[in-house]
Amino acid sequence: MGAKSRRNQGVFNRNNMTRKIVSTLSVAALLSAGAVAQSTATATNAAPSTSTANSVIAGPNKVAIINIQAAIANTNEGQRDLDALQKKFEPKQIELKSLSDEVDNLKKQLAAQTDKLNEDERNKRVQAIESKQKTLQRNLEDAQNEYQTQSNEIAQRIGSKLMQSLDGYAKQNGYAVVIDVSSQQSPVLWAATSVDITKPVIDAYNVSSGVAAPATKPTASAPTASNTPAPHRAAPLPSAPKPASTTGTTPK
Prior knowledge:
The protein is mainly alpha-helical. The protein is built from six helices and two strands. It has a domain at 64-209. The radius of gyration is 41 Å and the shape is elongated. The N and C termini lie far apart (137 Å).
């Protein structure tokens, strides 16, 4: 009975060991299968599908440059409104030029006659010149500020609408990036003329605005980011006057 019991116990132990090994192998197999499944799922999620990759490649991938300031000034609407602004300020320019010339003539007379004038007369003339200089300086600054304000209003009004034309043109022609090169701080060092879209954007804006071209336009090459002039400005206003001299030296 004891020998039989030992034999049964040995069989039992072997059976238990066998079950443990099978159980361990089953768990290992399940873990391995789970790891493979997880790796497969991760690889599937990480790798884009062929259709997705193709759609990325097929998306907009071109780069263009544009001179926004020049585009604004050379649209039909920009030329019309900036020319009208210049004509509006022509009387003020004439007035300032006349006052500036008067101040210059008074300075020349003082310089030429200073040796013949007594101190009181010389001081009177100096005070008269300085008074006119202050008036000229004040009127000049007011005119410059007013002109700049109205010029900026025109540029902002047209610029906001021009961006819509730029947006439509860029999307229709597959451009992913459009860089403005109108500023002197532009990061663009060089660009081929083939990527300059200033002229076609101007044309697109003219069509959408419906403003007719100016009656007389100077013959020139098509506007580009490099050769298109900056927004039109009125003729330069007289420079700030210099103080009158109270000595016999000719004012510089």
